[in-house]
Design brief:
The chain is an alpha+beta fold. The longest helix has 17 residues. The N and C termini lie close together (about 5 Å). Strands 1, 2, 3, 4, 5 and 6 form a six-stranded mixed β-sheet that branches.
Length: about 140
């Protein structure tokens, strides 16, 4: 039976929460829309983006895992900048995590859609490492 988007998001959330990536950050792991609005910690957000397959025995789609990193104020003058070294560490940890996602751990096959990179979230003085994953799920 085919899974819904929420079920797929739940599966990926559990994979992140129980995996090594969660131990690298200072905050928590959240499903999309549930991260505390004023969080100043390194948090991971898991979001289902798209899926296809319907009742086919193989579903495919995209999920995004974003890892937030608070900006630094190195001169204590109110001007925030990206924490380059921390973002680099998290990008590397995310890359290692993706490489560890093998089919023998679940019914999912994952691969990156694009290079893991860091993007600005200026309105909250943070940046986030973006991991866009394509999944294939066998449901028979």
């Amino acid at each position: 039976m085919a899974k819904t988007g929420q079920q797929i998001e739940d599966d990926v959330y559990e994979t992140v929460k129980t995996g090594p990536l969660a131990s690298v950050i200072s905050g928590g792991v959240y499903k999309y829309g549930t991260r505390p609005r004023d969080s100043k910690k390194e948090d991971i957000i898991v979001k289902f983006v798209s899926g296809s397959g319907g009742e086919d025995p193989i579903q495919s789609g995209t999920v995004v895992v974003n890892i937030y990193v608070p900006d630094l104020d190195p001169y204590e003058n109110g001007v925030s900048v990206r924490d380059i070294s921390r973002c680099t560490e998290i990008e590397n940890a995310a890359n290692d995590w993706v490489k560890s996602l093998t089919a023998n751990k679940s019914n999912y096959l994952f691969r990156t859609v694009q290079t893991i990179y860091t993007e600005e979230a200026a309105e909250i003085n943070q940046h986030f490492v973006s991991v866009k994953l394509r999944f294939r799920l066998t449901t028979f």
